[in-house]
Design goal:
The chain has 269 residues and is an alpha/beta fold. The chain is built from 9 helices and 14 strands.
Amino acid sequence: MSYKTIVVNLAVDADPAPIVKLAAEMAHRFDAHLIGFAAADVPPLVATSEGLVYEGEVMQVKRQEIEKRLAELRDSFERLVPQSISSEWKQYICGPTRAVGLVARSADLIVTGDGNDDVFRALDIGSLVLGAGRPVLVAAGNAEHLVGKTVLVAWKDSREARRALSDSLPFLAKAKEVVVATMETASGEDVRDSLADVAVFLEQHGIMARTEVIADAADGEGLVAFARSAHADLIVSGAYGHSRLREWAFGGITRSLIGENSISRLFSN
């Protein structure tokens, strides 16, 4: 298994260089086709006490500003990606979260930096992870490289964790060390059996892993602390959440990991 097509999202309000360099390095490592992508949208009409905002000519000006920025990002992408890497560019004028989900239909992996609350100009990471149907790699803040030398797999016996384990196999196969850790208050027979089965699964893919039980880590902060102690530069985790009307409600670990930008994270759902 490998990643044959990687989509990298360039946020319109961020420096594109770090994430493009990281994604290009990954495309080279996996011999993958790289799709550069960016999107933004003009906010809809808003009624105020003084009338409508963003009407007519103002909206057109804002659209032109977005088109100019997308052109700048395309230039940066094409300049930063080596010619030896197969690549292409796509852009949309619409909400970034929805747009990257469309582009990712033909990709194996989505690579992005952190998002923010402006749904017209930035990704909603939570909605993307739970809705894209593809693994999402959220790079550490302004990171230009992701070696994946030591990878920590956050394990629990669930559909999401199994999906994340399978989706991360290309990273695990190239890692120097793989640690599979589960967070339990006690290391019972069921826990040991679960970890042993994961180790066997990985061994069948040619990956040797050690297993750990983190007894005092009931949240994402404890998991990140363990990752730092293991010198991991990538955390693999299932994303646990559910839709509540138009927003996502997350479990504590997923919520903490989405907000953690000191280490790269690979999410699957």
